[in-house]
Amino acid sequence: MAEEPFRTIIEPFRIHSVEPMRLTTRAERAAALSRAGYNLFELRAEDVLIDLLTDSGTGAMSAEQWAGVQRGNEAYAGSPSFERFRAAVTGLFPFRQILPTHQGRAAEKILFTVTGGPGRVIPNNTHFDTTRANIEFTGAQAVDLPSPEGLQPALRHPFKGNMDVAALRELLAGSGAHVPLVMLTVTNNSGGGQPVSLANIRAVREACDRYGKPLFLDACRFAENAWFIKTREPGYADVPVAEIVRQMAALADGMTMSAKKDPLANIGGWLALNDDSLAEQCRNLEILTEGFPTYGGLAGRDLEAIAQGLNECIDDSYLRYRVRSIAYLGEALESAGVPVVVPFGGHAVFIDARALLAHLDPLQYPGQALACALYTEGGVRACEIGTVMFGLQPDGTEVPAAMDLVRLAVPRRTYTQSHLDYVIEAVTRVASRAARLPGMRIVSQPRQLRHFTARFAPLH
Ligand code: F0G
Fold this sequence. Notes:
The longest helix has 20 residues, at about 315-335.
């Protein structure tokens, strides 16, 4: 007889060591925010109660990962920790060449230094900010081709991260000569943490084949993406997650990766590819900026933590809990009437700040205004993904981003259900007075990646 499944999906781990959190008063938070120039990246982490700024490098490592840290071999060349890392990576992503890097953007920097440059065009479903910046830094153009469903926050569709394949074909037909490679970000972080279907990856592959272009995955959240394929795409319910990941990889020629996301490590990344001569050019650059190719900017202990994390992140009970805990947060906000991007993605809930703060113009930065209010209300740190992040153009002009979102990114295995209940209460309180929240203006900003260091002031 089949066992009756439990309705309650529990955290599939117990707590092994704890980190105290510091409660602050509203007055302390208001002062901290003002000192930070209303930029949440400038806050001291001790002044944050629940940190949903990013899911990057902020997860909790397992006992086995910490054991791996002890096993780390710190040889400059030929470390067995690198062999364990390479075996774990190629077990899921069987590319010929694996170049470790200190994080994802280092892999991007190397790849685009070799393949980018003035006049080049690099399409993606949606470039993440560091990817776009690394491409633009070489003088190349980063083009986003999200599927039309992905641009409608309230529309329900199982794979809103998909690329618009017709638009890709059109781009390749017109300016294919300028395209060195096509990228696909799984899950599509900037587009709302939405997954990409295997059918879409296959269709992108076909377009790439037709025009002779290599396809690279930006695979930071590959395991969450694979879980959505397993649970949403017809025909995959009984396919193991690891096998789905290998099918994703088999459609690509290479990948960039941040081990700070799904691989459950606090640092790390890699560039993987099949093209030996491209790999050689990349490896020469890697040695210049990252280190010898068997450690690439990482300590041996980090390579061990990543190798073990790769085994853990494809576990069904972990992924079921992970995706369910994001949906728990999202469903509660949705039923409280907060406009959120649906369906919920794998690592974050995105609030539609442009809809919630409809009294503000996008150039009054509704996402930034909302993120600041959430911090003042409950010490919850979120991240604007909108006009502050994407509005400044390379020529210095400013245009509204496609969407103004606030991302509540949930670190992996770090916060409990009661922490999320607290977040739900804080967001709901702020939402009830959203129409009175002031917009923001920028007081000072750099030319690139301005969201990290710009200073703001509230408009009164
Ligand atoms: N690609 C995607 C889709 C990402 O989300 C990130 C990082 C990177 C590349 C760069 O990786 O940080 O290791 O250099 N995203 C983090 C975030 C920072 O908060 O979403 P990295």
